[in-house]
Design brief:
Layout (H helix, E strand, L loop, with lengths): L2 H22 L13 H24 L1 H4 L5 H12 L1 H34 L3 H17 L5 H22 L3 H24 L1
């Protein structure tokens, strides 16, 4: 659970970059299709993080009550991280930032941007956004039914942000902070028990 997302995510980013250069003749940097500054992207990413936690809280009050959400792999991961500070450091560093957050946001935005460039009508953009969000939710099936629905909702909302603001870095930063804070909180609970 630690090396798999890091290596698979890194390979996925390289593959998407290769596809961008070889087949589409664009740069992966074009995923930021609207202008901004690096410090504004960081600030927006930090602002989006508490919004993601608010959405997670609302999901836990609703869909997590209605659908199953057991995930023993995640609990085993948390136990391993609580017992080994080096593994926790690897998880909070390259695994979360590159293997999970960067890969998922690059993949989401790459697919959305390419399909939006193909079908430019507003209706098509919303249909593509819904379809990609459902696909990303399904890819999180290991998190249980509630995880699939919750991730699909988060993906849809991140896609709306991307549609209107055209910036990928705030999404990467918010995703990495969101995942890191959750892991730190759960590891602290497991360590103290």
């Amino acid at each position: 659970m630690i090396l798999y997302p890091l290596f698979l995510g890194s390979a996925g980013i390289i593959w998407i970059n290769w596809i961008s250069h070889q087949w589409i003749r664009t740069s992966i940097r074009e995923l930021n299709f609207k202008s901004s500054s690096w410090y504004f992207d960081i600030l927006i990413g930090m602002f989006l993080t508490p919004l993601l936690f608010l959405i997670l809280h609302l999901e836990r009050l609703t869909i997590y009550q209605w659908l199953s959400s057991s995930n023993m792999d995640a609990m085993n991961l948390v136990r391993s991280l609580a017992e080994n500070p080096f593994l926790l450091l690897v998880w909070l560093g390259p695994t979360v930032w590159i293997g999970i957050a960067m890969f998922e946001e690059v993949a989401r935005c790459f697919i959305l941007k390419r399909l939006w460039d193909t079908w430019e009508s507003n209706t098509a953009k919303w249909i593509v956004l819904l379809g990609v969000s459902l696909l990303i939710g399904i890819l999180h099936l290991y998190q249980g039914n509630a995880g699939v629905v919750g991730i699909a909702i988060l993906s849809f909302l991140k896609g709306i942000y991307y549609l209107y603001f055209g910036r990928i870095w705030p999404l990467i930063i918010a995703h990495a902070l969101f995942d890191s804070i959750q892991i730190i909180m759960v590891v602290r609970i497991v360590s103290s028990s």
